[in-house]
Design goal:
By secondary structure, the protein is α+β, with helices and mostly antiparallel strands. 39% of the residues lie in helices and 14% in strands. A 5-stranded mixed sheet has the order 7-8-9-14-15. It binds iron/sulfur cluster (SF4).
């Protein structure tokens, strides 16, 4: 195998950061399989050619595996004659386990399968949430899928469909967790398996689940339906631990870094170094809990907030998710069914009413929140606000009558609970 000269790519290895070029060269030079060496050699050759001519040479097409309409990103080279080993270089999107928990044995198995059929290049994980297996021929795409499918992995979404879900690391490794994140993830995604594999929706639809308002999955910004764990009783305080923290850091540090940084001024410090939290005014920003995790914990009455409509750029610009369920318990089977029902109703309504290439949040902006809520059968209530403690999304003329109704409803829920 004659190695391509790559002076421009070599340059990219000189900076302080690890370079993807070094990774590809390692597969070209050190991998025991000649096929993997050749694929990576031609990949480097095409990339250098692209840099020289300032043009991209990958074009799309149609590649799929039997029974699926999506999950593969086809890439055919326009300069395949010059670089034949990498002329078909498709990417397979594969769904990771909820919370991204793998055994090392499973990681080895995936890597072995990929080196057998693909280029050896893998991304854990792309911003889509998938494992990205980059670089297979059309024929090997099917072989690789068959092999990993045998030991339990499935393709993710690509195109106008329900996309691969994401959930945070969860209660197994995080003390701030308020819900069973992985159950929520699996229930939602498994319920829409058909909609993942057969793209037939107006555009993409993403689920992301975070166990607490730190929102490690960026679900507010990135998910069409975001489920975030929270609590509605008081923050649990271990005053002895808090006093130890004050003794170690000093009162000034605590006032500067915790008390004055509470966005709603809900915290005060007593003379004996104990903390007082005005829980009615806490907006669950998580700041104080993050600073003193030994002393402060989420309350016991845990549940989830559901938001709809987050997305990045395109058309009308970035949108944050809108709260449509301020708090719901996620414990009994009925609770879980209710969560899935919200997702089903939302996707049905959106599929019927969205324009082509319109995300759910964009549709809500266009038709108005109240119409969407009516469409999915959720009552508007004063807790749905544009900003905490500011304007309601829903105009409530005769608001005092509406407020009475809302409090009556809340009381009757409490009585039946
Ligand atoms: Fe204040 Fe945020 Fe702590 Fe609530 S969680 S008390 S809003 S700092």
């Amino acid at each position: 195998m004659k190695k391509h000269d790559t002076p421009m790519l070599d340059n990219l290895e000189e900076g302080p950061w690890p370079s993807f070029i070094s990774g590809i060269k390692k597969l070209r030079d050190d991998h025991p399989d000649d096929r993997v060496n050749a694929v990576n050699n031609d990949l480097l050759g095409q990339l250098e050619h692209s840099y020289e001519t300032r043009k991209g040479y990958w074009k799309g097409g149609t590649v799929s595996v039997y029974g699926y309409g999506g999950g593969i990103i086809p890439r055919f080279s326009e300069v395949g004659k010059q670089f034949p080993a990498s002329k078909e270089f498709h990417t397979l999107r594969v769904q990771p386990p909820a919370g991204n928990y793998y055994t090392t044995d499973m990681l080895r198995k995936l890597a072995d399968s990929w080196e057998k059929f693909g280029s050896g290049l893998v991304t854990f994980h792309g911003q889509t949430g998938n494992i990205m297996f980059i670089g297979a021929t059309t024929e090997n795409t099917q072989h690789f899928f068959d092999e990993i499918n045998d030991y339990g992995f499935d393709l993710g979404g690509a195109g106008p469909c329900v996309r691969t879900g994401m959930s945070c690391v969860g209660a197994g490794r995080c003390e701030m967790s308020n819900i069973n994140e992985h159950k929520a993830h699996r229930l939602l995604v498994n319920n829409f398996t058909d909609d993942i594999h057969r793209p037939a929706l107006p555009y993409k639809f993403k689920f992301k689940v975070s166990g607490c308002p730190n929102d490690c999955m960026n679900s507010i910004e990135r998910a069409d339906m975001s489920v975030i764990g929270t609590w509605r009783d008081d923050i649990k305080v271990d005053q002895e631990e808090f006093k130890k923290y004050v003794a170690k850091k000093g009162r000034k540090h605590v006032i500067d870094n915790i008390v004055t940084r509470c966005p709603t001024n809900a915290i005060s410090l007593n003379d004996d170094d104990t903390i007082v939290i005005d829980n009615q005014n806490c907006v669950k920003c998580m700041h104080c809990l993050n600073v003193v995790p030994k002393a402060l914990h989420p309350g016991d009455d845990k549940g989830a907030t559901v938001l709809i409509g987050g997305k990045r750029t395109l058309k009308i610009g970035d949108l944050m998710g809108t709260v449509i369920v301020p708090f719901m318990k996620l414990e009994s089977e009925e609770d879980w069914e209710k969560l899935v029902e919200i997702a089903e109703n939302t996707i049905d309504f959106w599929a019927e009413n969205a324009l082509e290439h319109e995300r759910c949040g964009e549709m809500i902006e266009r038709i108005g929140l109240i119409n969407y809520l009516e469409g999915i059968g959720i009552d508007a209530e004063p807790n749905m606000v544009a900003h905490p403690r500011e304007s309601s999304y829903v105009r409530l003329d005769d608001w005092d009558d509406e407020a009475v109704k809302w409090y009556e409803k809340a009381d009757s829920k409490k009585d039946t609970a």
